[in-house]
Amino acid sequence: MSPADPDRPDRGPAQAWDAERYAREFRFVAEYGRSLIGLLDPRPGERILDLGCGDGALTAELAAAGVAVVAVDADPSMVAMARARGLDAFVVNGHELPYEAEFDAVFSNAALHWMRDADAVIAGVARALRPGGRFVAELGGAGNVETTRRALIAALDRRGLDGAGADPWFFPTPEDYRLRLERAGFRVEAMSHFPRPSHLEHGLRPWLETFGGPFLARVPEPERAALMAEVEEACAPVLRRADGSWWADYVRLRFRAVAT
Ligand code: BEZ
Which residues, in sequence order, are bridge partners of residue 248? Predict the structure, then answer.
């Protein structure tokens, strides 16, 4: 994407992943996402695409349900970990899905908010599905991680850097995402937007190190610890409870849509 191209939305700063750390410290992402499999209702023999599979924890559960699952993620370390689980996983950018009418369903947990050109993603999903295919997903919705996001932006702004410009996330309202799905030919069967405070077992710092890469990358390595300390201090009154535990202010957008 060239910033000079007004017709193509900015796809955002890239995030680099440490798949082993993600698998070790952020198992809750898959644990919370597990109930999304119920909304997907996979049937043995179906062919399903897992879009933004991460380390493949939920992909493996889909495979265990007897479906033929293809997993894609933009990050090579995540794909390597999914492959190490014996999954059929590939490095693919979600904005450029290469599939044509070959899946019964597309599933996605906690990944779509990293793909800022939502219309390009939805168009690729629509192309990938057979007629009547389901698109079932959960992503961060409007208001997601608002306290941390604001603190990160403010910490960069204070340094004369463009905090908002470093923000890699897309957290849509249900109205916004519904409209995009309908414009792409989907019938939306269910859509919910709800808070889900999520316990950060290891505190806020590892969350910032793991998910805040595009913000942290704006400052030289030796300054990052100070920036994260500022962010922790700004977030503590909202995210740290009296017992010292940290809870991220996650807000989810969950939907099931059918290709018409
Ligand atoms: C989320 O799952 O909502 C999320 C995770 C990391 C960064 C931003 C959002």
Answer: 198
Q: Does the Cβ of 144 fall within 6 Å of ligand 1?
A: yes
**What pLDDT, in 10s, does the model give residues 233-244?**
999 999 999 999
What is the C-alpha separation between 202 and 199, in angstroms, rounded? 9
Looking only at the bridges linking them, the beta strands covering 251-259 and 129-140 are antiparallel
CA 117 – CA 225 distance, rounded (Å): 31
Residue nearest to atom 9 of ligand 1 (CA): 140
pTM: 0.94
Burial (0-12, 13-18, 19+ Cβ within 10 Å), 68: middle
Count of alpha carbons within 13 Å of 146, Cβ hemisphere only?
11
The CATH number linked to 90 is 3.40.50.150
List 139's β-bridge partners, or say none: 253
pLDDT tens figures, 150-184: 999 999 999 999 999 999 999 999 999 999 999 99
Number of structural domains (the chain) is: 1
In a domain, 242, yes or no: no
CA of 30 to the centre of ligand 1 (A): 12
- Does residue 173 lie within any of the structural domains? yes
Residue 138 domain flag: yes
